[in-house]
Amino acid sequence: MRLSLLVGLALASLMSTPLGAAMASEALSPSEEAIYAARLARNKIPGGDPYDTMEAVAGAAHVRPLPVATPPTLPADVLEKAKAYALANNSKTLLIWRNGKLEESVYGPGSDAATLINAKSMAKPMGAVAIGRAIKLGSIKSLDQPAADFIAEWRGTPKAAVTIRQLLSMTSGLAEQGAVSDPASYMTRAYLSPRHDEAVINDYPLSAPPGTRYQYANASAELIAVIIERATKRRYAAFVSQEILKPLGAAGGEVWVDRPGGLAHSGCCMLLPGETWLRLGLLLLHDGVWEGHRLLPEGYVEAMKTPTAQNPRYGLGIWVQGEYVPRRGFGRPGQMLGAVLHSEPYVAKDLFLFDGNTNQVLYMIPSQNLAILRMGDAPPKSPEWDNSYLPNLVLRAITQP
């Protein structure tokens, strides 16, 4: 029987069960049930988070400072406008880097260069970089290696057809993101359970054949930690520390794990200083090479920036410009899930970016050797955050002096 038919039959059986229905395979102890209940309660509080078990992600023993442009090459009024926009939008940090030097470093009230910032879904490109590093080290063969080579629980099931590339590009077929509220839902357990690893591996369903549809979901990104740990025989935090942060000379932080000694969340929930995220972007801006040392395979960054037919604005953990739309959501093209305002197209066609919830953004523009980072709390609802304002403000100062 052909694989496509097998997948189709399995999906038909799956879809006879409501996607929100409980299909629990993980058995929680009474203490774990109490932790789960507490996380559910905190998750319902606006601005609250369920993080209760954090694991250290060690940085470099000696953080090497990035060089500073003295004086800046960008016009003073442009830098002042960028600073004002960032601070008006509850930013904890704004960093502007150009031609090898920091042009501007701005920190909001109560924040400084050492402040740990929750990157939200900016953790997804970190996972994509981790996969690239594991490929460079030989622990993973390629992006097109079946995920089931490492997730043995999927062998002999329709999920055996899922590749690592499909997980990173959100085309795995795993059901798209929805509300996290029903305690019995696979979606809630795959996020909040103290055994979320078992929930995301065993219970998170396919809702489309692998490779046929873009469906934004934390679940696909959460499985990256599973693959990294099983492929490298190292904990996810240790791998990110040893193979990414330390080579970049970057400061460390922490990541949420489902339970002590359990699985790290790789789809969200990593807290690092702003400059550490900037360095990750600079690694991509330099095609995976840092200070003459290649950390990522040749051509890997280009693969990250290459969108799929299923979503021409999303590559491997990162967003690209694509055809202009005033509002770009995180879900399938046309969906308004988490839609972000773009008042105009980006001035630079080669711009790509990290983009996380509450407007955690890192813009990278290779043609101008430019990177701009904004991270912090959710901006005010009015006036609305405009994802094109900061990069276009700076780009026009460079390209239209």
Defining key terms:
32% helix; 14 strands; 401 residues; six-stranded antiparallel sheet; four-stranded antiparallel sheet; globular; Beta-lactamase; 12 helices; disordered N terminus; alpha+beta
Give a structural overview.
Helix content is 32%, strand content 14%. By secondary structure, it is α+β, with helices and mostly antiparallel strands. It has one domain (50-399): 3-Layer(aba) Sandwich (Beta-lactamase). Strands 3-2-14-13-12-9 form a six-stranded antiparallel beta sheet, sandwiched between helices. A four-stranded antiparallel beta sheet has the order 1-5-6-4. The model is unreliable at 1-24 (pLDDT under 50).
Strand content: 5-15%
CATH topology: Beta-lactamase
Helix-strand topology string: HHEHEEEHHHHHHEEHEEHEEEEEEH
Architecture (CATH level 2) name: 3-Layer(aba) Sandwich
Helix content: 25-40%
- CATH class category label: Alpha Beta
CATH superfamily: DD-peptidase/beta-lactamase superfamily
- Sheet with the most strands: spatial strand order: 3-2-14-13-12-9
Cα separation of the termini = 64 Å
Task: Compose a concise summary of this entry.
With 401 residues, this protein is an alpha+beta fold. It has twelve helices and 14 strands.
